[in-house]
Amino acid sequence: AFGLRGSLKLRSKFYGPYKILERIEEVAYKLHLPEGTNIHPVFHISQLKKHVGHQAVPLPHVPLVTSEGYVKTIPVAVLDRRVIQRNKTPVGQCLVQWESLAPDDATWEDAAFLNKTFP
After folding, report:
1. Are residues 45 and 79 in the same domain?
2. Is 102 inside a domain boundary?
3. What's the rounded Cα separation, in Å, for the pair 78 and 96?
4. How far is the C-alpha of 106 from the C-alpha of 96, rounded, in Å?
5. Signal peptide position in this chain (predicted)?
6. Domain that holds residue 82
7. Contact 43, 31 (CB under 8 A)
8. pTM of the predicted structure, to 2 decimals
9. How would you classify the pairing of strands 75-86 and 107-110?
């Protein structure tokens, strides 16, 4: 599992997490490694990294999702307006805050699209 095959640049720098079986002296730990790894299970603490885990970001409410898997969004407010050039044609855009998303997730949308989709 930890063999020397493949590119060193693409290989993970850390593997695991693995359960600590015992502390050996002040600076080494014995880990429970999967069978077949063919490496010594005792590591110096400089070679180990604390496992933090996946940190969940709490949402105030779960956004609705369509049957196609897209987040169902409803515009709440237009925060700003601008005009951009697209193929030498001026296009009006609005910065839209969406109902089920945080204000930082506001997106620029074409005004024509908004008028057509949300009359």
Report:
1. no
2. yes
3. 5
4. 5
5. none
6. 75-117
7. yes
8. 0.44
9. unpaired
